[in-house]
Amino acid sequence: MAVSPASTLGVGLLSRVISYLDLSSLPEVSTVSSEFAAAVSRRLQRIESASVLQAIAGQPSVSERVTDCTLHFCQEDLSSVIAEINFGQLKHLDLSACQWLDDAAVTGLSHHTGSLQYLDLYWSAAIKSDTALCHLIRANKRLRYLSLSGVKATTDRVVMAACSQPGRAMLETLDLTRCPRITDASLMAIGSSYGDSLKVLRLYATTQLSDDGYSALKHLRRLEVLDLCGHINLSSS
């Protein structure tokens, strides 16, 4: 039986063939033809493996079409890969508990992303620079979910970057759990910026706040969840 060239195969059939291949080998397959490249890109729109991420790092035609990258609790150091990979269409990025995620990787992401709607950096202890965080947040104006829980580098400057930029989307979830450097200024910025959108605000163990900051939260008209656990300075008034 004659073998059909890739150019004559339907896209649906190509996608089925590719679905049986090992994901980390797909970037090599994408060089066969433009049809294969398109099918590979569809198969790799969601990344959940360190090996797959490494495999597509040198394939911009593939990485630029990825929309979801979820690598939470990944033990393998991918900081250099993350710093360089082009994620032009990435909407969902979960790097929670990736202890290797450092300032260089965050700065690189600020240059290679711009469409993020969901960003989770929970427990990224290697991040030390609030400037890197500011750059990443400013580069992604469409954020609706932002978790900086446990990122000790988070300061008022970072929160301001998520609030003050013209043309930003309306943030719906903001997690600032265990961010010891934020002050009342952050709460005032949040209250004045997201009164009509913010539904979840987590401030667990941010004990340096006062009534001046808390009072700004009254402007959050759509708030459904407010976590103030451990706030010893919260008065009854």
TrEMBL record:
Family annotation (InterPro entries): Leu-rich_rpt_Cys-con_subtyp, LRR_dom_sf
GO-annotated biological processes: SCF-dependent proteasomal ubiquitin-dependent protein catabolic process
Coiled-coil segments: none
Signal peptide interval: none
CC per GO annotation: SCF ubiquitin ligase complex
The protein, known as: Uncharacterized protein
Natural source organism: Perkinsus olseni (Perkinsus atlanticus)
